[in-house]
Design goal:
single chain, mainly alpha, Four Helix Bundle (Hemerythrin (Met), subunit A), 3-stranded antiparallel sheet, globular
């Protein structure tokens, strides 16, 4: 049969949807550090077969969100300071690159989207709503990532940003994340001025604010 000419609306692949749902459950704490993960239980919870669950767990293991010991059970990874430090360095570098590449492509609508996201971010911090703060922060940074249209950057960020989001929820649940609001404003200003280098520097600085939390985690684990 010839392939129909009309296009179908795009939809996420089942394995990608399962991966995202499990990843989000780990990041938001639904699945807690050290919790044992049985693929049959997860498949029943998500209403899917065990195959996409196993594929998702493999990807989550590569990102450092789950730990699978050979011949033993798979568990949700604990907050590992070394893994988080490594992820932070990579994510900071990728956002610097994304912003630098995005600046020539950003239009007024993009800058307004960044402002609106930052306003939602600031409001969520005032209310101590970590979930809303993370969502708004994602929306803010996503503007530049989309504009950069660098699939390599997007792939790396998709893998390693969730590692940091687990830690950030501790900060965004308090007022200690307020410095990021001002940094976001500086990014917007530099982008509006067309200064790609300066905008990239501030984007990198934004993700460097996680270092004190990482150092605290390292001292707690020492």
């Amino acid at each position: 049969m010839p392939i129909p000419m009309e296009s179908l609306a795009p939809r996420p692949l089942l394995r990608d949807d399962v991966h995202q749902r499990l990843r989000d459950a780990i990041v938001d704490g639904t699945l807690t550090p050290g919790e044992r993960l049985r693929d049959q239980d997860l498949a029943a919870w998500l209403g899917v077969s065990r195959t996409p669950v196993r594929e998702a767990l493999l990807r989550l293991g590569q990102a450092g969100l789950v730990h699978a010991a050979p011949g033993r059970s798979t568990t949700v990874a604990t907050l590992d300071a070394r893994a988080i430090r490594d992820a932070q360095a990579v994510v900071a570098a990728m956002h610097r690159l994304a912003v630098e590449q995005a600046v020539p492509q950003l239009g007024p609508a993009d800058l307004e989207a960044m402002r609106e996201a930052n306003e939602r971010f600031a409001d969520a911090l005032r209310r101590g709503d970590a979930e809303a703060a993370v969502t708004a922060d994602d929306a803010f940074h996503a503007v530049a990532v989309r504009a950069a249209a660098n699939t390599a950057v997007e792939t790396v960020l998709d893998q390693y940003t969730p590692v940091l989001r687990r830690l950030e929820r501790l900060r965004f649940g308090s007022l200690s994340g307020r410095a990021s609001v001002a940094l976001h404003e500086r990014i917007i200003e530099r982008c509006a001025a067309g200064d790609a280098g300066a905008a990239g520097d501030v984007a990198h600085e934004t993700w460097e604010t996680l270092r004190p939390l990482i150092e605290t985690l390292e001292s707690e684990n020492a």
